[in-house]
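FORM 12-B: Structure-to-Sequence Request
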């Protein structure tokens, strides 16, 4: 990574942090714990692989759909164009859907504003600012993801450091499926009184 790029990334991260703070202040959202059984509509965020096959995520969608959940999944790829056809409930966003600061364009934001979900699950392992914006602006009662720099977005976070610091023999591969299984295990194990 050359210096310019990391400097630029720092600036983008800084802008994001600022917008995050302002948005959360303005929003005063009512978060509500949603356990797995009560989650009717689920919004998945994922990092698309370059070939856009996304086998892992498609498998997760099948599992959730089999459980009677209504699933919307948005991925992101660091390309200028995507080849996947855009469906209302499955789309892969690319660089063109975001501005220079990696904030989503108006059309993306207005689509987010029109939808409400019981549960948002961010399956990304690295911090991807475009998807962090989506997580921030999405309307969901309960938001989950991995503990990272800008974790204030989430109501519940998995701390992966503890997991990835385990001994070599029990090395787990932290990928979308692993994150999904951890979060779903948690959501299934907590029973709410409502």
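FORM 12-B RESPONSE
SEQUENCE OUT:
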């Amino acid at each position: 990574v050359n210096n310019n790029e990391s400097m630029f990334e720092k600036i983008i991260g800084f802008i994001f942090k600022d917008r995050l703070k302002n948005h959360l202040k303005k929003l005063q959202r009512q978060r509500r714990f949603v356990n797995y059984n009560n989650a009717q509509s689920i919004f998945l965020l994922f990092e698309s692989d370059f070939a856009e096959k996304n086998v892992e995520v498609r498998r997760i969608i099948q599992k959730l759909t089999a459980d009677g959940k209504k699933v919307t999944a948005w991925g992101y790829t660091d390309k200028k164009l995507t080849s996947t056809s855009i469906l209302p409930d499955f789309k892969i966003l690319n660089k063109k859907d975001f501005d220079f600061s990696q904030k989503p364009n108006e059309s993306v934001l207005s689509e987010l504003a029109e939808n409400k979900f019981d549960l948002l699950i961010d399956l990304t392992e690295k911090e991807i600012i475009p998807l962090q914006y989506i997580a921030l602006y999405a309307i969901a009662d309960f938001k989950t993801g991995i503990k990272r720099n800008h974790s204030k977005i989430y109501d519940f976070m998995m701390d992966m450091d503890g997991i990835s610091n385990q001994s070599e023999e029990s090395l787990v591969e932290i990928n979308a499926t692993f994150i999904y299984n951890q979060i779903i295990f948690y959501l299934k194990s907590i029973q709410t009184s409502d």
